[in-house]
Amino acid sequence: MNVIDEGNGELVGWEHPDDVRKWNREKRSRAFEDKRMTASEAVERFVDDSDLLASGGFGHVRISTPILHEIVRQDIADLTLSGKTTVFDADLLIAAGAVSKVEAAYCFAHETRGLAPASRRRVEEGDVDVVAEASNATLQWRFLAAKMGVPFVPARILAGTETFEKSAAKIVEDPWTREPITLIPACYPDVACIHVSKADKHGNAVIDGISVEDPELAGAAKRLIVTTEEIVDSDELRARPKDVEIPYFLVDAVVEAPYGSHPGEMPYQYYFDEDHLEEWMDLTATEEGLEEYLERYITGTEDFAEYLEAVGGEERLAELEAIENYERPDTGGPEGGERV
Amino acid sequence: MNEEYTSTELLTTVASSLIEDESTIIVGTGMPMLAAMLAQRTHAPDATMIYEAGGIGPEAPELPISVGDERTFHRGVKAAGMHDVMSYMSAGFVDVGFLGAAQIDRYGNLNSTVIGDWERPTVRFPGSGGANDIGSLAHETIVTMHQDETSFVEELDFLTTPGYLDGPGERKDAGLPAETGPTHVITQYGVYGFDDNCELTLEFLHPGVEEATINEESGFRIHAGTYDRSPEPTAEQLRLLREEIDPRGIIR
């Protein structure tokens, strides 16, 4: 096949499909075992320094905050972050100094809330390197190729741009049309954390609402930590098997984590905590403020339950549930604006 | 003119008029979303909004603040995933995509990645997000952005998303789908289209804007041959925007 052009971005997370097949045969259990553990245990067992990490959901929607917190508490360092539609998740990890490299589709910003003060500071001052550019479809198709166990998938994106030049994709002559086609290489994250609506103790998991790119990411990750709003009996899931997005054999750890997406949204359950996110944006404008945030909410708390108390406990969480369900209090609602 | 209106309201009604009935539109949050909702309530009841994270055809009583939150699929046609939406778009089911950018050049190429050097940027923006995908795969794209000498540039600091690249035929030669590309650019001064050489050309000048302004506020020469004036928002459009679509005034 004639290679017409190739990007010079770092090829993050690519492996020979046979090496991953071997890994999946030897390291991933098929047993219906009880995989429940705490967030602390899950990070101790499955997240290492220098890993390639991908965070599920949509950056500030259905994110796995307890795992992000534990990565900070356990002082995990030198991570490469898969900057798929990342928002609060990336900003927190980059701000806290856990990340040294990013492959960026969407990173360093909070959608309508504007650019992220802390992670932008890190990347503009050179503490974090963008080693490759991507687009949302690029990363999600990198995960699809990995899930399919093939070295790449073809797609009609990236061509003609500097996003391509700084990516790890290649353009070849398609043997059918004889025209150029972009090949998107597979990406196997060392570890992914995905927050779900319901899971059983084996890891079978249901995502209510949009799945974003988690069905692909779950199939691509070499280790998968699932955090869940609720652990349910397997019989409940066997009664609705079509709703299970992630089957148990892809899952290494199951962490029960009610309100686990806070301060992000959990569709149908609770809304963004805009007050908390505003506090994050304000404090992280300076290094001193960032330290204050980390001490108040993460390193100064024992676990996620203590964090939830620190952000306002049951009363605040009930307000967020009301907003999500369109029962907005008269004050304290979210503000939007132009997308940056 | 019926009553006072804001700049955003004018841009919203102008963008709305470009949305056809029985079409599919990928939007982000912000003004284009209002424009699509306004179109649905006026001339385009069967226009369907699609969000890149997976939401298709929502009927939500309030605005999303993320392109992945519940408001993007509330009472929707389908709560899908990104792979579904990107695939439908690649297969030709998405008619129009709305995009924003920090910089644009005469061929409609967009930068949303960096200002300055890529290795050590002066300003780091979020990157492509879904923009490169939408700019590559939607049948047409409409760009909405702020216009001045630093955003309308002779040379982009970084080409994130393809417009017409270096001119006619370039997209097809690069391998992008046939008959795709930007059709309109909406700024605070007017609406631009693209001429036979794929270069930006003035189509509509907004009310009260002088023709000379469009070139004073551009780093490259914009052709202004025959053009019309953008219609002002009607009383009914303003009522819909203020009372039904965005009563809390989140996007003004």
Automatic annotation (TrEMBL), chain A:
SMART domains: CoA_trans (SM00882)
Keywords of this entry: Transferase
Protein name according to UniProt: 3-oxoacid CoA-transferase subunit A
Keyword hit for Heme: no
InterPro entries attached to this UniProt entry: CoA_trans_fam_I, NagB/RpiA_transferase-like
A GO MF label: CoA-transferase activity
Recorded superkingdom: Archaea
Transport as UniProt keyword: no
SUPFAM superfamilies the record matches: NagB/RpiA/CoA transferase-like (SSF100950)
Gene3D superfamilies xref list: 3.30.30.40, Glutaconate Coenzyme A-transferase
From TrEMBL, chain B:
A Gene Ontology molecular function term of the record: CoA-transferase activity
Keyword Cytoplasm attributed: no
Domain of life of the source: Archaea
InterPro entries the UniProt entry points to: CoA_trans_fam_I, NagB/RpiA_transferase-like
Alphabetical list of SUPFAM superfamilies matching this protein: NagB/RpiA/CoA transferase-like
Pfam families: CoA_trans (PF01144)
Entry keyword set: Transferase
Identification of the protein by name: 3-oxoacid CoA-transferase subunit B
